[in-house]
Amino acid sequence: MIEHLNLILDLIVITFAVMLSFISWIAYKKSHLKSVLFLLLAFAFFIVKKALENIPALLPTLQKDYIEVGVTLIEVVILGLFFVAIAKKGD
Amino acid sequence: MRDMTETRKRILEYIQKNPGITFRKLAEELNLGIGNLQYHLNVLEKNGLIKSKKVGGKRHIFPAEFEREYEALLRVISNKTQRKILLLLATGSKTQTEIAKELNLTQATINYHMKILNENNIVERERDGKNVIYTLKYDINTIIRVISEYRPSLWDKLSDNLIALLLEIGGRKND
Question: CA B50 to CA B24: how far, in whole Å?
Answer without folding.
Answer: 16
